[in-house]
Amino acid sequence: MFQRRLSDWSDLDTSSLVELEGSELLGDSPGSVPNGGVDTTSFYGEEEEDDDPIYIPRMDICSQVPRGNVFKDGRTPIDFVLVWEEKLQSSKKHRNKGAARGPERDSRAKGRQENYRKRFHRNLLKAGLLCEKEQTLSERRCLHYLKLSAPWDLLVYYAEEMCMRAPLQAQPNPDTNTSHRFLQRLRLPNPMYQHVPNKPLDYYTCAFRRSKLQKFLGSECQATYFSNIQRSRILYELLCHTVYGKRKHAEVGIERLLNEGIYTAAFPLHQGPHEMPEYEVSPETLNPRQILYRYWARWSQWYKYQPLDHIRDYFGEKVAIYFAWLGFYTAWLLPAAIVGTVVFISGLVTMGSNTAAQQICQSGTRYLMCPLCDTCNNWFISDICPMAKVGYLFDHPGTVFFSVFMSFWAVTFLEYWKRKNATLAHHWDCMDFQEEEEQPRPEFAAKAPQMEQNPITGVKEPHFPKRDRLSRILTGSMVIIIMLCVVMIFLVSVIMYRGIVTMMMYHTGNNLLMTQAGNIANISSSMVNLVLILLMGQVYTSLAEKLTRWEMHRTQSLHEDAFTFKVFIFQFVNFYSSPFYVAFFKGRFIGYPGRYGKLLGMRNEDCGPGGCLIELAQQLFIIMVGKQIISNIQEFLIPKLKSWRQKRQLAKVRGTQLSEEPKRWEEDYELIECEGLFEEYLEMVLQFGFITIFVAAFPLAPLFALLNNWVEIRLDAQKFVCEYRRPVAERAQGIGVWFLILEALAQLSVIVNAFLIAFTSDFLPRLLYQYEYDSNLDGYLNFTLSYSPHPYVSANHTMCRYKAFRDEDGNYTLFYWKLLAVRLGFIIAFEHVVFFSLRCIDWMVPDIPGSVEIKVKRERYLAKQALADNQEVLLTVSPGSSSAGSCISARGMSP
Predict the structure, then answer these.
(1) Residues ≥6 apart with Cβ < 8 Å to 259
(2) Which one of 28, 35, 82, 264 has the largest count of C-beta atoms within 10 Å of its C-beta?
(3) pLDDT tens digits for range 37-54
């Protein structure tokens, strides 16, 4: 309905418009711009005579709009800004290039763009928007700024069309911080709490109806009834549905105009600067952006609660829910980090009492080991005494307990996030939010070969045959498989590199290098692997974006879901393939003396002296922590470099005007475009995988994740408040498809940790030996070492030992098969116990808190009473809140 009515308005002849009271005729006096009007001379380059007059209604606005965010009349608020650039004089090089390709072609393209803009502007005026134009000139470029504002009647009309929610009854804003309430009950000080001024009120709301306007709070003050983000949301929806060309070619909407370069930017304005005043002012007088900067985006606030209501009121629900989830996730990392650190310290304290390591250190020259490579010499197992002690840090009974703990932690965290999400969704009026019928993507509309009628709206829209799209999706899947094979090729290359470095270290003859050859090879190969991972991630993300565009998904939601799936699948394999290899494949196919397994002519690599778990811990530390450090550096430097470059380019355009204070729209245009939340979610989800899937090998992973997230929150806050243009506020019920990915990772972590303990750790072999032979592990080292089979002999013609449960003929012993049965039994028992307990947690913890269910019922009752036609209801206001008749700034209607 919204689409049909707006399209009808866009195609209306101007003579069908009705003059409203207080309106002025556009262009009555050449060169003058009436209040809320547009100068046609500045619009199109020269004055035009219109066949039909265009009437622009004036607005009576209260003076509560931030300074610099109004039209020249000082009253009309700016809800949206469109920017386009025009080259006035080309350089000699550019003129020669243009002459080579044909000046006529450039002229036609420029004329077509001007015509599109002209039509778009006219249809915006016909739809009822107020417009005002500014421009910044230089010798070569001209920047045009079109300021847009929606009058009251337009806002009210589309508020009902877009099913916004309006405030019925005010109530105290609930405290959503569980830790704060807990500390209050214990009467303990809370250093994380801070008072943030101008906290928005909470309201019971219902669907807005124009006919019931007087029953909603704040309806008597038109200036503040619609919040800033609600006004920009209505403007954005209108811009997305306005026609600028031929409807049959789907030439509709600002997104396609931006995509084709007809406009360079479209954004709502920030509500003032973020810099704090040089003089002391009352916190209540700060603008919303300054409040966010002072109480949220500064590094000194790293341990304070996030002002989520303020974030939601400024950036919208989608951004606020991301920061709510990130803060909730970071808070839950605290107990995991504490337990992991305790487990690591307990291993450090008991490292000297490790019986297996003591037997290695005290063996002397008793156990002569077989060479580790075909050209290497024999060695004594006592040479690896230091590494055997260090390996105990990552392979002791405490790590088994921690893996079980983290399995419960992951699922419990997700269950309680459901409750937190439900609370925030109701508090922010998006619990019942559903995406409206989306318009086709601009690129889809431009390239779709057919037009078909939409069964919902009845309007002809671009159409792409399903069979053709399916073939493209299958082709794209083949490309993904090929890229995954490339990842495997790089993995094999890293394995070969590790083997070559190890042999080089052995052939140096240096005892230190020989004993540390495995560590040197593993650490250096992990660094090389990290570089390859980051490079492959950049290449594939660009490739996935092109593939997703080529698949021609109709809507932006479908496009984003397909892109998310492609990138996550690749990044999962890209980041986790090497740890999976070390955990489950390295040392499993080495064979035995005389029958070694080989890959490309080289012996398959065995686990290092300290075991595979210590190598896995080294890899996880380098890949996880290295990725976090590089990402934080990029997030800190790249936005600042982009912003510096943008400001430098625009400074050249302003030229002699630098002495004047730049306007708000000029300052915002100097900022960089908001890049969205995809990369932020992807980084956190990959981190979640590291701290849950391989936590048995790296107990300190939650601690490093916690430290990183404290930095991440402030970096992201600074980007949104200081570096980015203000994004259009979007609604969202939760974190979307990312929650499904987190659930899948949590389930996978249980399985992986079970196999990691069973097959990679020495926990079960030691446990079985204690049960069958000796509870004190006496003779355990000799029991785990087999003799080289006949007729194989080592280089010095003496019998050597190697680590395996085999007899002298190379066959597996009975203990090996018993151990295999114990390992499989442990996996089954571990998974069943954990999964059963998790189902119990899921059953016991309701997804929606009882207090929220009561509020939902109360809200529905008030909505039914307020919208009833046969009775008058007096809506009371909770103590401490504003009265119904006052001019309040409500959270009100959520677009």
Answers:
(1) 442, 443, 446
(2) 82
(3) 333 333 333 333 333 333
